[in-house]
Design a protein that fits this description.
The structure holds 2 protein chains of 2 kinds.
Chain A lengths: L3 E10 L2 E11 L4 E5 L6 H9 L6 E6 L2 E2 L10 E4 L11 H11 L4 H15 L14 H13 L5 E5 L7 H18 L2 E6 L2 H7 L2 E6 L2 E6 L1 H6 L4 H6 L6 E8 L2 E4 L3 E4 L2 H11 L2 E7 L4 E3 L5 E10 L3 E7 L5 E7 L9 E6 L4 E4 L6 E2 L6
Parallel strand pairs in A: 3-8, 3-9, 6-7, 7-8
Antiparallel strand pairs in A: 1-2, 1-4, 4-5, 9-10, 11-12, 11-14, 12-13, 14-20, 15-19, 16-17, 16-19, 17-18, 20-21
Chain B lengths: L3 E10 L2 E11 L4 E5 L6 H9 L6 E6 L2 E2 L5 H4 L1 E5 L10 H6 L11 H14 L15 H13 L5 E5 L7 H18 L3 E5 L2 H7 L2 E6 L2 E6 L1 H6 L4 H6 L6 E8 L2 E4 L5 E3 L7 E6 L4 E3 L5 E10 L3 E8 L2 E8 L9 E6 L5 E3 L11
Parallel strand pairs in B: 3-8, 3-9, 6-7, 7-8
Antiparallel strand pairs in B: 1-2, 1-4, 4-5, 9-10, 11-12, 11-14, 12-13, 14-20, 15-19, 16-17, 16-19, 17-18
The chains are: A alpha+beta, B alpha+beta.
Chain lengths: 363, 353
């Protein structure tokens, strides 16, 4: 297996950056997602790693070997695309063995290899079927098997679940992750779906506007987003982000609300913004409805989700916050509610640089 | 606004029965959702109510009056579709005013202005009024489409997957707006979707459809807590409900191919299907069941645990990030009074077995 290293890798089309210079080291056996909205540069990054796209600058190494200008076929990397790209005239077994036949491997070895991946993916019953007769999930399994059978140094996957309906996506997500835990192949996974990235990855590279916004574990990007983009993009709904005004240890918020900044953070906030506008961020589950709560607003809508309830609360006419409660929570529209925030889960951001303001001495 | 009643509607397309004896009532001011997979008959039902499709049998009434002989225009319904049908060369203001300028209505200009401005304010699109609709984002266009539907106060709103073309964040935001609008204005609304989250979060009541038939009608809580069939049980809820074959075994229920014995109250059939929602599989250090943790999927607000017991895998949904390690043996309880029992054919057997 392989370590993948990107050093100042960039891609320009004319004067326009598709990917601004980025550094990234993916450890041997690691599962890393490139996550962001369409046009953020994630697929271009993946294509540069594969060699399907040339770089405009920087260096790509596989296991310490500079492959920046190597042909894709010299990189020993396998692809799984969103569209399965199976050969329609071959059955599943023939599709899986094809890459090995093309390499000229002898028949007995091919059979052994195919046997292995078939067992791993539990696709014994599909082998004699043509792609046109397979469900979307099964086609994706065959495409995975065909990639696996070559035992590549790394897997590159470009939205492999994008074409599946919700139900299959959930199942395949778990299957790919289990497969990864079994074979520990270095994997780079491109997706625009934050749930997929969170559920599957060891680390997530959040990208937007051709630029890396944050690299971190799922817990890091969720609890400690580096900036407002990451805070909004991760989570469903994203983090509540309320602009207020800092002064004398308190951030005054819309409505008649205020949030006292913990002592340890005051110096950081004063350094970053002095007296002035500051953004308070908290996840929906960091707020708790409580009759004696310090903050208040009026219920705008109540969503039942089966397992839980999402309350949407107006602080004033323009600011809505989302509060997650248990499934019995429900209020008529317009009800005044009070709530508290779990101070461990409150974050602060600079409204202009959009960057997180963290306690000094902490990353 | 109006109430709507469908009685025994049937509709055949060549070689297929699109609607099979569909009956339901929508109350005045109700947000009623038709939920089902592609081909369930949801859109055909909506078109029959609108008068765009003629049914073979049964009748549709508005406020107790049979409307079957009325043209779509005379039924006075307003549509919002998945594809926005705005006039691209007109401004947002002109698009919103258009339905009021119909020769049949002859609304005076000052009143048109008042209505358009009020609707724009409700939907937070006042700042867009002078813009051409071709220059709007998808979310803005859909707001204008909704605005054009509500500006003229029809008897009923018919919405066919209006949020499906929007990205996830926008869908979330508009879902909340739509729900707020409907609740505060009391519009009778029929909303068609294949998305269970849209149905659960917005509906007063949901009708689940499949293969041209109504499978179950109920409040979101009814549908989620007491699904009438395994089809309904698996259609709503993410991650999906755990569903296992089980059998009677010495006064308890044994999940096949596992060691999970669940107390039974006595009238258990010899074989059945057992449904357990993932949030009702609760890890606890002194839990009565045990299994091996084979996969975790951290989603941020919660984590999905895959727990293997014998040959079966249960999904469990727990709050926050977990510190449990892969391959740990973990103990758990099942919330006994939230288990779901179905016959092998998939019909709900009652709340206690």
């Amino acid at each position: 297996m392989a370590t993948i290293q990107l050093q100042k890798v960039e891609k320009k089309f004319g004067e326009l950056y598709a990917v601004k210079p980025m550094d990234l080291t993916i450890a041997d056996g690691e599962f890393v997602s490139l996550l962001g909205p369409s046009g953020c540069g994630k697929t271009t990054t993946l294509r540069m790693i594969s060699g399907l796209e040339t770089v405009s600058g920087g260096m790509i190494s596989l296991d310490g070997r500079n492959v920046t200008w190597r042909h894709p076929s010299d990189r020993n990397i396998a692809f799984v695309f969103q569209l399965y790209a199976l050969y329609p005239h071959m059955n599943a077994r023939q599709n899986i063995s094809f890459p090995l036949q093309a390499e000229g491997m002898d028949k007995a070895d091919i059979e052994k290899r195919v046997e292995e991946v078939v067992k791993l993916l539990r696709i014994e019953t599909l082998l004699n079927t043509r792609p046109s007769k397979l469900s979307g999930g099964d086609k994706q399994r065959i495409a995975l098997a065909r990639a696996l059978v070559r035992r590549p140094a790394a897997f590159l996957m470009d939205e492999p679940l994008g074409a599946l309906d919700a139900e299959f996506r959930e199942t395949m997500r778990a299957e790919i992750k289990r497969l990864h835990l079994n074979i520990h192949a270095t994997t780079v996974y491109v997706t625009h779906d934050q749930i997929e990235a969170m559920a599957m990855s060891d680390r997530i590279v959040v990208m937007s506007a051709a630029e890396v916004q944050q690299v971190g574990t799922p817990a890091e990007v969720y609890y400690d987003p580096a900036n407002l983009f990451v805070a909004r993009f991760i989570g469903s709904p994203g983090m509540n982000l309320i602009e207020g005004h800092y002064g004398e240890g308190v951030i005054r918020l819309p409505g008649e609300n205020g949030y006292p900044v913990p002592n340890g953070l005051r110096a950081s906030i004063e350094n970053a913004i002095g007296d002035g506008p500051a953004v308070v961020g908290f996840r929906p589950e960091a707020a708790e409805i409580n009759a004696q709560g310090a903050l208040t607003g009026n219920v705008y809508a109540t969503d039942l989700h089966g397992a839980y309830t999402m309350l949407h609360v107006n602080l004033n006419e323009n600011e809505i916050v989302h509060i997650r409660g248990d499934r019995t929570v429900s209020f008529p529209i317009g009800t005044q509610v009070r709530f508290n925030l779990n101070p461990e889960m409150v974050r602060f951001f600079h409204p202009e640089t959009e960057k997180a303001i963290r306690q000094e001495g902490r990353p | 606004m109006s109430s709507i009643s469908l009685q025994n509607i049937t509709k055949d397309f060549p070689g297929v029965r699109a609607l099979d004896n569909v009956s339901f009532d929508i109350q005045d001011g109700e947000f009623f959702v038709l939920l089902g997979p592609t081909g369930a008959g949801k859109t055909t039902t909506l078109r029959v109510i609108a008068g765009l499709t003629k049914q073979e049998g049964g009748s549709v009434s508005f406020d107790g009056q049979v409307t079957d002989s009325l043209t779509p225009a005379d039924r006075d319904v307003a549509f919002v579709f998945q594809q926005y049908s705005l006039y691209p060369t007109m401004t947002v203001y002109e698009n919103l005013a258009f339905p009021l300028r119909s020769p049949m209505r002859r609304t005076p200009e000052p009143e048109i202005r008042k209505k358009v401005e009020h609707v724009a304010q409700t939907l937070r699109i006042t700042h867009l009024l002078d813009r051409k609709t071709a220059r709007l984002s998808g979310g803005e266009m859909q707001r204008v489409s909704i605005g054009r539907a509500i500006v003229r106060e029809p008897r009923v709103f018919l919405m066919d997957e209006p949020l499906s073309n929007l990205d996830a964040k926008l869908r979330e935001a508009l879902r909340v707006e739509l729900q707020h609008l409907q609740k505060t204005q009391g519009n009778t609304t029929l909303f068609v979707t294949h998305d269970q989250i849209e149905a659960l979060t917005m509906a007063d009541r949901i009708a689940v459809m499949n293969h041209g038939r109504i499978i179950q009608i109920g409040t979101p809580n009814d549908i989620y807590d007491r699904p009438a069939t395994t089809f309904v049980a698996t259609l709503v809820g993410t991650p999906r409900i755990n569903l296992f074959k089980a059998k009677r075994d010495n006064g308890s229920i044994l999940i096949e191919n596992s060691e999970l014995h669940i107390p039974s109250t006595g009238n258990t059939p010899p074989q059945l299907l057992l449904g357990i929602r993932p949030e009702d599989v609760k890890p606890a250090s002194n839990g009565r069941f045990s299994g091996q943790l084979i996969l975790t999927e951290p989603l941020g607000v919660e984590t999905i645990l895959h727990i293997q017991s014998g040959g079966q895998t249960l999904l469990s949904l727990v709050p926050g990030m977990t510190h449990l390690m892969l391959n740990d043996t973990i103990r758990f309880n099942l919330v006994q009074d939230r288990l779901h029992y179905f016959s092998l054919q998939g019909k709900r057997l009652g709340d206690r077995i």
